[in-house]
Task: inverse folding
């Protein structure tokens, strides 16, 4: 799929078919997640890929009401920030770098016909702590976001306006 | 350009030719920035597009040594978080949403043959404050990142490894 088309036509998909996503497709999605950029090329993230139905349900319990689509997802990915790798002089770039990784995965999925929905975790610390407990994460790993993936069983129109004039300024505020 | 190719072959471009990027290409890049997702569809960002050479140089002064490529860029975009629109119960999602917008712009540019480099601003507060002062921004706008854009005058190989086995976990940490 053309890159501009993938970016402009992506919508959040919350209902998925039962068709399994092939392992090689998941591999490409994860490679996209790793292709950055990241602050000083720190690559300060890690990914947990989950297909087990019981674990997906526990991730839904942990990540608040918007995370319900995980219960019907083919697989989920927990994106974590890795404080061990994060830029020491400004560690919170892990939030930016985790977001880039997640968006790369979502766009790669779209291009491969796989739907997804981004389920926010950080900065909602109850979700961060619940996922940290569920996966018994080391202190260096901070849950950033969860993404639910699967082949789409719905095709919603984009919710966002194409253009918002008042969001763009030229040369000055 | 194919979306997977755009994502996997993107590299940071720091040297640009003098060829101007057409307005319609800039428009498509900005539309990509607006195409989300964002937390509760808040679209909590704004963009300042700069072509003026003097202002680009001042942005480079404000954003630290890595921002030097702005001095040779065809245009720069300052991405701001908009606290007025941000999700009231967890405002810091503006950091995630600004990152998504910036990465969409970078990938759209790549697909259109335009090179770019992401210049981190937040969480380095000296940069945040210097850009806020330069553009005399209202309190509701938080400088997030600056991106330098232009047609590439260099073609560096990707710096990142294609795959890092130890970054991926299956089913559990």
Result:
């Amino acid at each position: 799929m053309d890159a501009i088309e993938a970016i402009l036509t992506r919508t959040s998909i919350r209902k998925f078919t039962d068709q399994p996503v092939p392992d090689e497709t998941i591999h490409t999605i994860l490679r996209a997640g790793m292709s950055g950029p990241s602050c000083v090329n720190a690559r300060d993230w890690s990914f947990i890929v989950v297909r087990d139905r019981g674990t997906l349900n526990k991730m839904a319990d942990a990540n608040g009401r918007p995370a319900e689509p995980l219960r019907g997802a083919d697989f989920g990915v927990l994106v974590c920030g890795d404080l061990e790798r994060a830029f020491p002089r400004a560690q919170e770039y892990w939030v930016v770098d985790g977001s880039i990784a997640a968006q790369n995965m979502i766009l790669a999925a779209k291009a491969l016909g796989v739907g997804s929905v981004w389920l926010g975790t950080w900065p909602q610390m109850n979700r961060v702590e619940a996922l940290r407990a569920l996966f018994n994460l080391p202190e260096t790993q901070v849950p950033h976001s969860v993404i639910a993936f699967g082949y789409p069983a719905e095709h919603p129109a984009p919710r966002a306006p194409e253009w918002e004039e008042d969001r763009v300024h030229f040369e000055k505020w």
